[in-house]
Q: What sequence folds into this?
């Protein structure tokens, strides 16, 4: 057991301050354990959202020493020795209180993405046939736990607050999972460019760097979608081909 | 409980509560890319010492017009205006330069290192306004796939250069097969540039990334797997090939200037 100092944000939308607490840390503890101990010992009204303590529910997202992290997966023994640990809420969403932010904007965004629309079943028994490679490609995207750490770190939302015209990396992952799905027949490419702001992403890969599920967001979801946008909107030869194909049919 | 008044915002250039040395990577990228641009511009404007025996510097290949025996169409056309400086490199370097400039990996890197957009993840930016690649001018970056097509043509020429670098003219005028250190330098250059260009995101799109059924692509599943495998190391290929292409020019230049002697292995 050793004493560690914490600077924890206390406040709401109207303002607040970093409060200093000291608590004992033992082997194997994570930041969320420490926050709970602070809650038990000296700040029973400290607001913190959590659920699984196993890195699977995506509730305990916050910023630890300036880095977007899941508190339950951030080990205390990875923190620099002898320095206070700073814990604060995410920056891209409105603050409710202390470490809790209102992430409901994300739920609204999700509704705007066209849902899965499969082709008719391949067999009479109502089943489909898919190749393993096609399934493997979208499988990665399904690991998302909706922690929104990628949305928090993305400078388009965090710094420029373009929430109205940009759906953010989490939803590019979602769109990619649907768009590349071997059974899906819906077309989301035009919207991605026109209203969902994929062009704002400047592929700086901060989303990939923070994803606790290690989804290769930029390389495997966003860039392939950007390439599909180029096919539809910017590639003159492709456009020409499409005109001819349309004429023939 | 002690109170320390503060604000939650990290907006403002360089503002962050990150504790690590976040500036190291962008600084290294800034220095690496700047060094390359300075050296390659200098080398391109030299217009001499770009070939040595059967070796041709990759900055000058293909040599469309020029005074070396590698030139495809002979000397500089007489119509070339005298006031315009001529170097065979200037005729072609725009293509590989455009390929790298519009490369997804480099874009992400230089937006951070040169334009601070953002300087690093979760670090404040110098400007409030932001358009990204959503509108002019950066929407032009979408031309990348066309530079890829050109880069693939360059790969063919650079491979031919390696073939040429396997043949040495002896003192008696006889041409004989051989391998010199320069041959290896040029061969490694093609391997690294090949790994870089074939692992390009636009290449991946072409090889099945753009299809919902990867197997429908030109080279089927195997092609997609291959390109994806190179693509995973795209950053490493990008840096290794950048360094080596400059080194290849440097090596040929040093041989041509007589500073170093090319060592014949075979
Ligand atoms: S890569 Fe794009 S989506 Fe991801 S953090 Fe950077 S700008 Fe945002
Ligand atoms: S993509 Fe990763 S970082 Fe983003 S919400 Fe999903 S799990 Fe979290
Ligand atoms: S509490 Fe569920 S992810 Fe941390
Ligand atoms: S993405 Fe890097 S070369 Fe195309």
A:
């Amino acid at each position: 057991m050793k004493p560690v100092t914490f600077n924890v944000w206390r406040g709401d939308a109207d303002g607040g301050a970093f409060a200093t607490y000291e608590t004992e840390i033992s082997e194997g503890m994570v930041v969320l354990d420490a926050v709970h101990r602070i809650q038990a010992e000296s700040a029973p009204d400290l607001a913190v959202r959590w659920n699984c303590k196993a890195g699977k529910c995506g509730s305990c997202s916050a910023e630890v020493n300036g880095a977007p992290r899941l508190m339950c997966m951030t080990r205390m023994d990875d923190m620099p020795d002898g320095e206070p640990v700073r814990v604060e809420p995410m920056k891209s969403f409105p603050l409710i209180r202390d470490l809790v932010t209102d992430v409901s904007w994300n739920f609204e965004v999700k509704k705007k993405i066209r849902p899965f629309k499969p082709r008719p079943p391949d067999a009479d028994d109502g089943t489909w046939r898919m190749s393993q490679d096609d399934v493997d490609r979208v499988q990665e995207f399904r690991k998302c736990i909706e922690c929104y750490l990628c949305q928090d770190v993305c400078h388009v939302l965090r710094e420029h607050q373009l929430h109205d015209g940009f759906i953010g990396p989490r939803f590019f992952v979602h769109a990619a999972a649907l768009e590349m799905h071997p059974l899906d027949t819906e077309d989301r490419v035009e919207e991605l460019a026109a209203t969902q702001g994929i062009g704002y992403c400047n592929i700086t890969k901060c989303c990939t760097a923070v994803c606790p599920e290690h989804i290769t967001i930029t390389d495997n979801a966003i860039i392939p979608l950007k390439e599909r946008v180029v096919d539809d909107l910017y590639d003159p030869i492709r456009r020409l081909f499409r005109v001819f194909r349309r004429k023939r049919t | 409980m002690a109170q320390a008044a503060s604000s939650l915002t990290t907006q403002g250039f360089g503002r962050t509560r990150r504790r690590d040395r976040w500036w190291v990577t962008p600084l290294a990228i800034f220095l690496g890319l700047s060094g390359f641009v300075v050296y390659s511009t200098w080398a391109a404007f030299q217009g001499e010492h770009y070939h040595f025996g059967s070796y041709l510097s990759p900055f000058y290949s293909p040599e469309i017009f020029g005074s070396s025996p590698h030139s495809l169409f002979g000397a500089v056309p007489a119509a070339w205006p005298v006031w315009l400086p001529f170097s065979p490199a200037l005729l072609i370097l725009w293509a590989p330069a455009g390929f790298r400039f519009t490369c997804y990996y480099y874009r992400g890197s230089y937006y951070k290192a040169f334009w601070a957009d953002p300087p690093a993840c979760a670090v404040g930016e110098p400007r409030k306004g932001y358009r990204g690649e959503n509108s002019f001018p950066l929407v032009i970056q979408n031309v990348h796939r066309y530079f890829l097509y050109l880069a693939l043509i360059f790969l063919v020429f650079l491979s031919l250069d390696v073939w040429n670098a396997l043949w040495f003219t002896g003192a008696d005028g006889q041409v004989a097969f051989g391998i010199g250190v320069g041959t290896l330098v040029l061969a490694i250059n093609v391997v690294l540039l090949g790994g870089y260009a074939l692992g390009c995101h636009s290449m991946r799109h072409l090889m099945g990334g753009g299809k919902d059924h990867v197997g429908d692509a030109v080279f089927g599943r195997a092609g997609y797997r291959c390109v994806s495998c190179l693509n995973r190391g795209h950053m490493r290929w990008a840096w290794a090939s950048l360094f080596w292409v400059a080194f290849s020019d440097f090596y040929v230049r040093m041989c041509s200037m007589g500073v170093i002697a090319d060592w014949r292995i075979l």
